[in-house]
Amino acid sequence: VAAAQAGDQQAFRALWRSAERQAHARCLRLTGNRTDAADALQECQIAVWRNLHRFEGRCPFGAWVFTIARNAALSV
């Protein structure tokens, strides 16, 4: 996480890959269709990257992403 927060895109990709499947499933469940889920997942990924500096590690990274995915799906 620290490397990704320092701007290491390779580290971010690894973090994202670890959470992407669960985030996509959440988006699909909440939107009800693949197109909106894909849009929400993209918004989620952007939000995670932009707000990575706010991640404090008080919860697992995946749980943090899961919350962002929920918010993105609800806003589609």
List the keywords:
mainly alpha; elongated; 76 residues
Give the topology, please:
Blueprint: H1 2-5, H2 9-31, H3 34-51, H4 61-75
Helix pairs in contact: 2-3, 2-4, 3-4
Q: Can you characterise this structure?
A:
The chain is an all-alpha fold and 76 residues long. Helices cover 79% and strands 0% of the residues.
Radius of gyration: 12 Å
Query: Segments where pLDDT lies below 50 for 5+ residues?
Result: none
Number of helices: 4
Structural class: mainly alpha
- Mean pLDDT comes to 97
Shape category: elongated
Strand content: under 5%
* Major sheet size, sense and barrel closure: none
**Level of helix content?**
over 70%
**SSE sequence, one letter per element:** HHHH
Number of DSSP strands? 0
Give a quick rundown of the structure.
By secondary structure, this protein is an all-alpha fold. It has helices at 2-5, 9-31, 34-51, 61-75.
